[in-house]
Amino acid sequence: MRALVLAEGGSGFPPGADDFVLPPIFGSVTKPMVLVVLSVIIIATYFLLATRNLKIVPSKSQFVAETIYDFGRNNIAREQIGTKDFRPFVPLIFSLFTFVLVNNLFGIIPILQFPTMSRIGFPIALFIMVYLTIHAVGFKRHGFVGYFKHVMFPPNVPKAIYILLAPIEFVQRFVFQPLFLAVRVFAAMFAGHLLLLVFTLGGTALLEASTGFLKPASVVSWAIAIAMTFLEALIEVLQAYIFALLSANFIGAALAQEH
Length: 259
Prior knowledge:
By secondary structure, this protein is mostly helical. It has one domain. The protein is about 70% helix and about 0% strand. The chain starts with a helix and ends with a helix.
């Protein structure tokens, strides 16, 4: 791992933010850019191959593809947006879930070993797409003035309270809620990958230490790194789910007739 980090422009131990700034592979193309393209190829190829010959009794690959699709469609989009309005948004929610999931899992795959979402630019790009979708459907459903009224003036609230509540609701819905999508997945992937680097490179540093009694501690450090890898895998799946879930929830809130 240390050789991998150093080869990619990292600074060795202790690791820091510089280990996430990778040098170009060729031209201005960096490893995270390649991984994003690779993730799209992996997702598209898998689902095209798994669904090219659909059967009543599904094969293993068809079963997995159908399970993932059903999860995105029914457990995320339908539950959060509502039975009446969810269908047009299934492709978006399904794509967000699978895209974020694969790019997160890159962080624990040997050789690749870099979660793309740990670079803030990629979550921001997804956040902008979701942001535009949320407010586009809100303006379409309620009208320009009606949507602002829907967001800023919830019913059954004393009018005097609106003086404080309206600007808070505006900032929350138009700034903090969607921005939270990007920051949450970025922070989780950045922190998780950094912890893996700390324990992995820490074990190497302890093994190479001149003080002999520190060398056995390297085994403990590497054992923690292995345990952290399993925990990180769980977090990567959860963050993909939460990103898609919150996206669907915000879309559902924009479409709702009541605040």
